[in-house]
Amino acid sequence: MTTATNKEELFIVKEQDVVPLRNRVKEYGVKIGMSILNQTKLITATSELVRNLLKYGGGGRVIIESVTNGRDLGVRVIFIDKGPGIKDINLAMQDGYSTGKSLGLGLPGTKRLVNEFDIQTELGNGTTVTIIKWKNG
Amino acid sequence: MQNNLLASLKEHQNKLLTTWSQLLQANGSTDGVTEEEESKEFAALLLDALQHSNGNTDSDEFEKVYDLLIGISSSRGRRGFSPRENAQYLIAFKEAASSILSEIESDPVKLYSANLELSTLLNNMTILTFESYMKGREDVISRQIDEISEISTPVIRVWDGVVALPIIGTLDSSRTQVVMENLLQQIVDTGSSIAILDISGVPAVDSLVAQHLIKTVSATRLMGAECIISGIRPEIAQTVVHLGIDLTGIITKASLASALQTAFDMLQLTVVKRK
Amino acid sequence: MERIPILKMGDFLLVTIQVDLYDQLAENLESDLINTINKHNSKGVLIDISAVSIIDSFMGRILGNIAVMSKIMDAQTVVVGMQPAVAITLVELGLSLNGVISALNVEKGMDLLRAKMYNGDKEEQTYDDSNQ
């Protein structure tokens, strides 16, 4: 059972919102004593996902939460956009796939950086990506 | 509803303590002095709580009892008591209290309800002791895990500008992360441009371990240092080839000595024998 | 518009990134740097990223672009001071920054640039010799 203890919500509409978001996520990591390496992985994953949110979803909301699961502490970040959604989610999760002009390691690469990764998408209704990085994960 | 029989146990505190410690000694789940102090404090607090909180087991007095109990159990966990001994601690208390109750009350109905209430209370406390006992043990385990990962990844400065890291045991992903972190941090701290990863102590290299090794080499190169993998035993070379793992692009050496020789070559150093 | 300063030191350009990058800032750096290489006919670029705590795929791509673009313009790029956590994260992400040459610190990076220049000259020399 994963429960949230502390949460806040940020609206991301332009590129300049990205740096403050990364800093907020980092603060959540610092608060639970996450190692520098895991903090870096978490904010890098955040950076990748928020770029997708801006580029494909036209902006959206990001929820940051401190979560616990028994003895484990972690940070959960949820990215919610109301964009066009992803057509073929299995294809998007393959290494080397990209519709935009990036390197195409967005989603699968990001998944490797975190402990839990969940993506829900519906054509025309947007995409919600949830990631959790555990303190010792 | 508070049974006033339980409240009156306070008057028999000393007798209860004696009976309890006799029971504990009888089943051998005691270690003497520390415990006597703990037990005395616990009995005093619990009996006070029974006397003053009118059956409300969430009162401040009971909170104090629970806190103390959690402390006692986790410390018993760390002191190496077995789970059985830990459970017997409160069970013995219940027996002692129940024997005193039967001495001071003869009406079976009253005695029954007092015993029932005592049972419920102590059963809940037993669950609490178990949880904190396990927590105490888990703390020991997690501390040991930390220690193991600490001592199992020593980074050695073998030469000015050359660090070596012998890996003993299996390389899984969490271990690889610790290895990488330590190695890269040492590279930064010592300003070493060559790192040697010795895998003589790794029992087997499968495709996953190979992937971890390749990741470590890539990360080292990203930082601007070179990584040599040494200690490739014949059977490792065989499995690597049979599994079709591609190690080209990585400098591999059979022994730490030849890896060091390669490092010297890269640093344009020569070792000469004095005449 | 925020910009990252580019310093000229003889034949080399020195860039120290002191702030966390966002996409636009990184893109500006790319074009500014290439223009400056052209303006001064620089032979080498040293990018110090020791204060950068995050590099994701976009910024990684920019670094790669800079290395390749400067190479075409006959300038060598060396990236120095990458944090261990950043390096591990990049590898985990699947980004190996092909074409980017790195060094541990500014000093080693400078040595590397000079060595590259020297070797480059020597190669030209031999080429000339064989022509004569």
From TrEMBL, chain A:
A Pfam family in this protein?
HATPase_c
The transmembrane residues are none
The residues covered by the Histidine kinase/HSP90-like ATPase domain are 37-137
Q: Which SUPFAM superfamilies match?
A: ATPase domain of HSP90 chaperone/DNA topoisomerase II/histidine kinase
This protein is called what? Anti-sigma regulatory factor
What is the protein's species of origin? Flavobacterium hungaricum
From TrEMBL, chain B:
User: Does the entry feature the keyword Phosphoprotein, yes or no?
Assistant: yes
Task: Spell out the protein name for this chain.
Answer: STAS domain-containing protein
Record-linked Pfam families: RsbRD_N, STAS
- Keywords from the UniProt entry: Phosphoprotein
Q: Source species, please?
A: Flavobacterium hungaricum
The record places domain STAS at 152-267
From TrEMBL, chain C:
Pfam (any one) = STAS
Q: Which domain of life is it from?
A: Bacteria
* Residues annotated as domain STAS: 2-113
TM region(s), chain numbering: none
Name the InterPro entries for this protein: Bact_StressResp_Reg, STAS_dom, STAS_dom_sf
- PANTHER family linked to this entry: RSBT ANTAGONIST PROTEIN RSBS (PTHR33745:SF1), RSBT ANTAGONIST PROTEIN RSBS-RELATED (PTHR33745)
Q: Could you tell me what this protein is called?
A: STAS domain-containing protein
Q: Which organism does this record belong to?
A: Flavobacterium hungaricum
